[in-house]
Amino acid sequence: NINVATCNDYDAIVACNLTGEVSAVVGQGWDLSKSGFMERGCSNADGVPQNWVAENLTARGFPGPPMDTLQYVLPACQLATQAGTECRACPLPPKAELMTATNIASYVTNPPDPNACVTNFDLSSVRPTKPKPNTKARDHR
Predict the structure, then answer these.
(1) pTM of the model as a whole
(2) 16: part of which helix (H) or strand (E)?
(3) Among residues 8, 29, 43, 46, which one has the fewest Cβ atoms lying within 10 Å of its Cβ?
(4) Rounded-to-integer distance, Cα 64 and Cα 4, Å
(5) pLDDT less than 50: residues of the chain
(6) What is the DSSP secondary-structure string of 23-37?
């Protein structure tokens, strides 16, 4: 979460086989403060974290990524689907195991249960649901 500047309680990890040229937004835009955390929905207006990931990051003082870590904003699954290549999503382990994991990528490169993984090709026959509108008020100062 720190390297990708999120506080989401993810339940899967995704790997995409992109072979062609793609464009990405690269930078470090994590607002390392209580206000930045609230803006992203990590905490409520009173500063109360909204999930276990946000609780952990708040307790650690909103840590930032190392200076040599670049954050990529890339719709990899959509790009892979357009290019006819595959993305694979595999479940992440429970919180206790995830907090001590040393190689998160292994959950998709060598998953404990390969049958639990899905690909964008598996999902191509599934009709997408309409996203819910974002109802969170944001203060853009």
Answers:
(1) 0.64
(2) strand 12-16
(3) 46
(4) 10
(5) 125-141
(6) --EEE-----SHHHH
